[in-house]
Amino acid sequence: MTDITDITDTADITDITDITTAGSFQFGDRTVNRLGYGAMQLAGPGVFGPPKDRDAALVVLREAVASGVNHIDTSDFYGPHVTNELIREALYPYPHDLVIVTKVGAVRGEDASWNPAMTPAELTRAVHDNLRNLGLDVLDVVNLRMMGDGHGPSEGSIEAPLTALAELQRQGLIRRLGLSNVTQTQVEQGRGIAAIVCVQNLYNLAHRDDDALIDHLAIAGIAYVPFFPLGGFTPLQSSTLSDVAARLGATPMQVALAWLLRRAPNVLLIPGTSSLDHLRENLAAAQLALPEAVRADLDTIGQTAR
Ligand SMILES: NC(=O)c1ccc[n+]([C@@H]2O[C@H](COP(=O)([O-])OP(=O)(O)OC[C@H]3O[C@@H](n4cnc5c(N)ncnc54)[C@H](OP(=O)(O)O)[C@@H]3O)[C@@H](O)[C@H]2O)c1
């Protein structure tokens, strides 16, 4: 696990990025760089259908891995199937150190809607869909994605669906399990059913509901993987963020990612983009130093958003 003091102070972040400066994290029995990549943005508009530029999507995936990314987040419900098929086409046979994390618990309607799919039969089908479309015999990490209130969790037992996934893990189809869109109570219930290696919830500079959960998971050695680290479909906009970025000679998105890297050592990043320029910009955040005074300014963004 990397302490924030391990992160190199580098004024010039325009050079070729060494993302290992952001540190690594022990993810079950695998080690991943803390800067990863979220593949959801590669599907068509509304995460539905094919991308507008398939070749560009393949280039983004290949460049991410060539730059040292060894943690990619996906799901077979992105597209559906589209994102996993792109990952397979771009990267198969996969590098030995690549950890592909997927999620199950929903299916897409023909109208692009997101619908819960939590029965054992639906979860089994989702695991097999991921295996087939990624071209794998076993999935590295599968997150059980609870529907909650959409992008926020709501309380309720996760026993039945997680027990079903634990059974698929026992059958050898899944190496590790994680949870998504869950409360701390649900995390603790889940840990009583199976070993949990990661939690994926909505969190960024402006949405800090999970501050206590992050610290709780850090003590337990469980990765916290924020989704919408840049604000999601409407990327973060804040005059404070822009001012800090200008002072540091960086972009607001780089500052938002650098802040997350320093939030806690168990925070792993999966910023999403369909753009090669944005990918390079985001990975360069690995080398952005954030002075203490700047971090205090950035903390005010979350306080005013509350
Ligand atoms: N567990 C869950 O329920 C859940 C939910 C949502 C997402 N996820 C995962 O989390 C990953 C990250 O979330 P996300 O992709 O939705 O949101 P995000 O990373 O917060 O932001 C992505 C958005 O920011 C834009 N962007 C990226 N880099 C940028 C840059 N340097 N400058 C300006 N704009 C930039 C992207 O557009 P461009 O394509 O134009 O760059 C896209 O619109 C997803 O890819 C997915 O794997 C999980």
Q: Strands, helices and their partners?
A:
Blueprint lengths: L23 E4 L2 E4 L3 E2 L15 H13 L4 E3 L8 H10 L7 E6 L1 E3 L5 E3 L3 H15 L4 E7 L13 H12 L3 E7 L3 H8 L4 E5 L10 H10 L2 E2 L14 H10 L3 H12 L12 H8 L8 H14 L1
Parallel strand pairs: 3-4, 4-5, 5-8, 8-9, 9-10, 10-11
Antiparallel strand pairs: 1-2, 6-7
Helix pairs in contact: 1-2, 1-9, 3-4, 7-8
Bound molecules: NADP nicotinamide-adenine-dinucleotide phosphate.
Provide a descriptive summary of the structure in words.
The chain has a single domain (4-305), classed as NADP-dependent oxidoreductase domain (TIM Barrel, Alpha-Beta Barrel). The chain starts with 23 loop residues before the first strand and ends with a helix. The radius of gyration is 18 Å and the shape is globular. The protein is 37% helix and 15% strand. It is an alpha/beta fold and 306 residues long. It contains 10 helices and 11 strands. The chain has helices spanning 54-66, 82-91, 120-134, 159-170, 184-191, 211-220, 239-248, 252-263, 276-283, 292-305; strands spanning 24-27, 30-33, 37-38, 71-73, 99-104, 106-108, 114-116, 139-145, 174-180, 196-200, 223-224. A 7-stranded parallel sheet has the order 3-4-5-8-9-10-11, covered by helices on one side. The protein has a two-stranded antiparallel ribbon with strand order 1-2. It has a two-stranded antiparallel ribbon with strand order 6-7. NADP nicotinamide-adenine-dinucleotide phosphate (NAP) is lined by residues 38-41, 73, 103, 145, 180-181, 200, 227-233, 235, 253, 270-275, 278, 281-282.
